[in-house]
């Protein structure tokens, strides 16, 4: 619990910051968007990875302020991201199930983009299957509304949680992120390749931007080049890094 009070302090200090990891076109390496990932350096306990405290923040009900902070910070960094990657760069933020159920989330998400003069079309909201399925009716309504506001919607970690393919039809999706578990031993076993191909074809058939997560080495990156239009994310192309502050003379 002390740790959760620490979260709210950290959001107001330099102990919490965002790093951005590129999602690239696999054939030419061009960066299309970047995913914001939160980082916390605790003064006493050192680095605390998000999967160790985000679930707690969801439980105790402070994830809403965390998510709004992330969206606001990502919008603040947008100028720097544009200088780094070009004006069409998208910025992705991770949204939790609890956010989708919060009555003010829609309004506040819209207000943040407006306040920073950023088109929601440049903002991708990454939602996990588990979040989307937690309360499907509420999630569906919120996702629909966010989509109508112009935000782009990505289904994160696809194929990892308990999911139903049928649910793909219930949400207006723009992007499908294939969970990195699909890459395990994929170059060794033809059956794994068939399963991954089927997932990629499903995304393509639904007209979604398809992103393969967790690409760590060149062998897999080269193998993935056989799929036209496919996007990738992983240490092979870039680790999460802070946005490079735009030098004043570049603006
Ligand atoms: O950045 P990576 O280390 O390790 O992230 C681990 C997990 O934490 C991932 O599942 C990622 O989606 C999640 N995560 C990272 N940043 C955020 C964030 O800002 N909000 C939420 N809800 N989850 C995040
Ligand atoms: O669940 P989500 O996809 O939002 O989380 C992204 C997480 O995956 C972050 O923790 C990020 O640091 C991590 N990640 C990004 N690229 C790679 C990779 O190539 N390999 C592994 N193992 N993890 C990665
Ligand atoms: Mn994500
Ligand atoms: Na993911």
UniProtKB/TrEMBL annotation:
Keywords from the UniProt entry: Membrane, Transmembrane, Transmembrane helix
Residue ranges the record marks as coiled coil: none
EAL domain segment(s): 1-251
Molecular function terms from GO: cyclic-guanylate-specific phosphodiesterase activity
Protein name: Diguanylate phosphodiesterase
Source organism of this protein record: Marinobacter halophilus
Portion of the parent chain present: 619 to 869 of 869
């Amino acid at each position: 619990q002390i740790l959760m009070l620490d979260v709210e302090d950290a959001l107001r200090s330099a102990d919490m910051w965002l790093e951005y990891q590129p999602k690239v076109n696999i054939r030419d390496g061009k960066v299309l968007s970047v995913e914001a990932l939160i980082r916390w350096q605790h003064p006493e306990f050192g680095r605390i990875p998000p999967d160790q405290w985000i679930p707690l923040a969801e439980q105790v009900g402070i994830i809403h302020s965390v998510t709004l902070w992330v969206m606001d910070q990502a919008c603040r960094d947008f100028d720097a991201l544009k200088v780094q990657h070009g004006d069409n760069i998208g910025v992705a933020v991770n949204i939790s199930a609890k956010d989708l159920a919060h009555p003010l989330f829609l309004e506040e998400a819209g207000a943040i983009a407006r306040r920073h003069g950023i088109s929601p079309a440049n903002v991708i909201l990454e939602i996990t299957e588990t979040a989307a399925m937690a309360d499907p009716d509420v999630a569906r309504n919120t996702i629909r509304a966010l989509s109508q506001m112009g935000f782009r919607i990505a289904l994160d970690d696809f194929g990892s949680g308990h999911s139903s393919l049928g649910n793909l039809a219930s949400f207006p999706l723009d992007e499908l992120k294939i969970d990195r578990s699909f890459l395990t031993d994929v170059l060794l076993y033809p059956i794994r390749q068939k399963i991954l191909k089927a997932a990629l074809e499903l995304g393509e058939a639904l007209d979604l931007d398809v992103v393969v997560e967790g690409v760590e080495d060149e062998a897999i990156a080269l193998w993935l080049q056989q799929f036209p239009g496919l996007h990738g994310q992983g240490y092979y192309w870039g680790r999460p890094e802070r946005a490079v502050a735009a030098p004043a003379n570049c603006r």
